[in-house]
């Protein structure tokens, strides 16, 4: 056995998305870092070994895509990958290589694949000094020393070996009064899954299952119990087993049992399913996973224990370092052995059922303290092993969220090292620094904005050659977004529930509004309309605020007619420029409110899922409306709001789409600045979840070709120039300091949008 000794500032154990983001974040802040990963590829459950594609908040909330390192990775994957993305089974090695490329290309980062942590050593009761690592197939043992350790193993392996306290199974209802908790505590966990992929061969292909495969005979097991065959070509999340096996100690038994069930389910589809066997005749099994994808095992206790009340109530934490927005998604603990699949699937994904209402949550903030191990001072956690209850795990466990936790952990580790503190003992000022670094690195925090004292752009004034205005959108509007416009709703979509359309207010007046409605009842109908102030695009509360204006609209019989409302609303009535109002129409099933033919950036829609509570409508696209005067909600000052995405406002500069490119935006200071770095944030890939974007996708809103120039010596001097861009965050360290009182960003071409768009500009001294 070869023995090696290595030393790093930060040792990250686990190479899933949380681990990759933790390691890259710490390394980018100057720490020496290693990743120890027990498999040959990075990505954990998202890798080509398991093939669960990352989910996150944008599945349920418009403009809620996770940003930061995970966004860089997913944007790169879509730009390079020829494969479409479906929920399970479709991940290929392009994704593996995107992750690998980032890891090996990041300075200060060392990668150990096929390497398993087998021991933890401490030089004091609460302080880890090193981990022992066995390298598979190499007869090598590494002792990796570190100052900070981050457990991203999923199973909490490092924390367990270090003697940290952890929980398993579900808390009982009486402990925290969680609505999703069972009456009695139990050791039951959510199960593990393996996936498969099938291929259309263009001719009939027989299939015969081996004798040891499970044999299915009853259609009710699938069709009456929530096990839906939503795509013939790829395997299903509900091929899941946990109890009676332990998801850690019985992992091999679970793998074998899942393989038996996969083959049996494919046998059912191919040979006996009355609805699918003809459709599946030409399909052949192409791949079956042999690494179970785990949902739950150990949850390590931290400095705060997050329960479902926090995401459901959107608790505001002073140490907020990430956000989530998946619903409280607790799978039936028996999986295939349970009476039904997880509750929302068993209900047919009904959006207004009692279960759906109590499970919908977010976007909500997540505190740093759930990443800080309670029993070790230099151990941070990231991934599904963080300090949360079983019920809260239902929402924080999805991979896009755990990636954010990883980036936060890596950033916190680097701040602790720089300030000479234990990673789990950061003070208030340290946490503020962590938050500001995360924002600078592209992350979003719902309750924080850019307050970085080093960003001199904050003291500048912004101006542009032109700015777009919102006039509205109709069903006939051309979708110029290149696919950003989203999916169409059913041809007929009556107003069975109250519906709302967010409108950004850029002038302190709304004289009139109109909505495109259909009434095929044969008699005149009335619909109550109101304008309601809202705090953000995720302010789903309805009925609790006094409307700014209200009107009963008369809707005569007819199709797609514009019904006008003379609102006459001004600042005197409480209209606030620089925020949102929500145009609401009350329910009337005899009336349809038509969706627009395209999406207006920074605008979304929702419907009342329960009394006083809304949820995103469809994909959150724009409902048809017209507004007068047109709203100036894309002004150049939006690049300096401190928030780089639609949230409390559009937070976006868009040039007038009627004007030709190039378009320019300038910053101007009262005094000369010495600038060494310019950082830009562009819009794109925020509106919908990652799964919704096609192969080779480059977001139309994102500038493709642009340049940066500084006013020096009485003329504009180009200091940076980029062609072929599709990433939404770009950092430009200048080769030498530039002394200037004016800076100009010129967008020469986009990836398809007629408007030039910028979300944020930051400038730092040399």
From TrEMBL:
Pfam families in the record: FAD_oxidored (PF12831)
UniProt keyword NADP present: no
Keyword annotations of the record: 4Fe-4S, Iron, Iron-sulfur, Metal-binding, Oxidoreductase
InterPro entries in the record: FAD/NAD-bd_sf (IPR036188), HdrA-like (IPR039650)
Statement: the UniProt record of this protein carries the keyword Transmembrane helix: no
Residues covered by region (Disordered): 463-492
PANTHER family linked: COB--COM HETERODISULFIDE REDUCTASE IRON-SULFUR SUBUNIT A, FERREDOXIN:COB-COM HETERODISULFIDE REDUCTASE SUBUNIT A
Protein name: FAD dependent oxidoreductase
């Amino acid at each position: 056995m070869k023995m090696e000794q290595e030393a790093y500032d930060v040792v990250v154990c686990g190479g899933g998305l949380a681990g990759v983001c933790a390691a890259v974040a710490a390394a980018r802040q100057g720490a020496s870092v290693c990743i120890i990963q027990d498999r040959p590829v990075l990505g954990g459950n998202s890798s080509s070994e398991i093939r669960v594609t990352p989910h996150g908040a944008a599945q349920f909330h418009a403009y809620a895509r996770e940003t930061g390192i995970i966004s860089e990775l997913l944007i790169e994957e879509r730009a390079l990958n020829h494969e479409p993305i479906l929920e399970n089974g479709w991940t290929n090695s392009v994704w593996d290589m995107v992750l690998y490329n980032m890891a090996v290309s990041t300075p200060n980062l060392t990668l150990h694949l096929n390497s398993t942590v087998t021991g933890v050593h401490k030089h004091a009761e609460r302080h880890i000094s090193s981990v022992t690592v066995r390298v598979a197939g190499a007869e090598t043992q590494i002792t990796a020393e570190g100052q900070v350790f981050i457990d991203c193993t999923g199973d909490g392996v490092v924390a367990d070996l270090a003697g940290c306290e952890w929980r398993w199974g579900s808390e009982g209802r009486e402990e925290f009064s969680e609505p999703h908790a069972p009456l009695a505590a139990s050791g039951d966990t959510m199960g593990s899954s393996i996936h498969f992929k099938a291929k259309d061969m263009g001719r009939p292909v027989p299939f015969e299952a081996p004798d040891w495969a499970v044999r299915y005979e009853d259609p009710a097991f699938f069709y009456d119990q929530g096990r839906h065959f939503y795509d013939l070509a790829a395997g299903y999340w509900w091929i899941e087993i946990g109890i009676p096996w332990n998801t850690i100690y019985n992992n091999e038994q679970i793998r074998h049992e899942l393989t038996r069930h996969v083959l049996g389910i494919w046998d059912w589809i191919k040979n006996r399913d009355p609805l699918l066997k003809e459709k599946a005749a030409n399909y052949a099994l192409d791949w079956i996973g042999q690494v179970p994808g785990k949902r739950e095992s150990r949850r390590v206790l931290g400095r705060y224990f997050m329960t479902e009340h926090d995401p459901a109530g959107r608790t505001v934490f002073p140490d907020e370092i990430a956000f989530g927005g998946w619903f409280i998604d607790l799978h039936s603990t028996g999986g295939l052995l349970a009476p039904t699949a997880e509750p929302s699937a068993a209900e047919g994904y009904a959006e207004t059922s009692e279960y759906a209402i109590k499970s919908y949550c977010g976007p909500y903030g997540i505190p740093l303290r759930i990443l800080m191990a309670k029993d070790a001072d230099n151990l941070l956690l990231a991934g599904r092993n963080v300090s949360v209850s079983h019920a809260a795990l239902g929402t924080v466990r999805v991979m896009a969220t755990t990636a954010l936790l990883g980036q936060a952990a890596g950033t916190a580790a680097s701040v602790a090292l720089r300030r000479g503190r234990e990673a789990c003992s950061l003070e208030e000022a340290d946490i503020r620094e962590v938050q500001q670094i995360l924002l600078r690195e592209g992350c979003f925090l719902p309750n924080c904005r850019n307050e970085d004292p080093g960003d001199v752009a904050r003291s500048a004034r912004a101006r542009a050659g032109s700015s777009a205005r919102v006039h509205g959108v109709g069903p006939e509007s051309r979708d110029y977004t290149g696919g950003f416009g989203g999916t169409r709703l059913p041809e007929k979509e009556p107003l069975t529930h109250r519906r709302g359309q967010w409108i950004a207010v850029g002038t302190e007046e709304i004289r009139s509004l109109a909505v495109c409605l259909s009434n095929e009842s044969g008699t005149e109908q009335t619909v109550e309309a109101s304008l309601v102030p809202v705090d953000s695009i995720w302010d789903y509360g309805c009925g609790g605020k006094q409307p700014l204006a209200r009107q009963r609209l008369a809707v005569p019989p007819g199709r797609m007619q514009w019904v006008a409302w003379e609102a006459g609303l001004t600042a005197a009535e409480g209209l606030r420029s620089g925020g949102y109002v929500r145009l609401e129409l009350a329910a009337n099933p005899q009336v349809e409110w038509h969706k627009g033919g395209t999406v207006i950036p920074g605008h979304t829609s929702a419907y009342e899922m329960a009394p006083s509570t809304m949820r995103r409508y469809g994909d959150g696209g724009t409902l048809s409306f017209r507004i007068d005067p047109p709203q100036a909600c894309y002004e150049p000052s939006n690049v300096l709001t401190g928030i780089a995405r639609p949230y409390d406002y559009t937070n976006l500069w868009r040039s007038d789409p009627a004007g030709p490119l190039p378009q320019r935006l300038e910053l101007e200071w009262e005094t000369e600045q010495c600038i060494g770095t310019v950082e830009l944030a562009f819009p794109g890939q925020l509106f919908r979840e990652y799964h919704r974007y096609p192969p080779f996708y480059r977001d139309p809103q994102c500038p493709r070709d642009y340049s940066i120039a500084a006013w020096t010596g009485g003329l504009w001097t180009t200091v940076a120039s980029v062609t072929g861009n599709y990433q939404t965050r770009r950092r430009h360290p200048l080769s030498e300091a530039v002394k200037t009182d004016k800076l100009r960003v010129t967008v020469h071409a986009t990836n398809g949008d007629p408007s030039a768009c910028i979300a944020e500009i930051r400038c730092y001294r040399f």
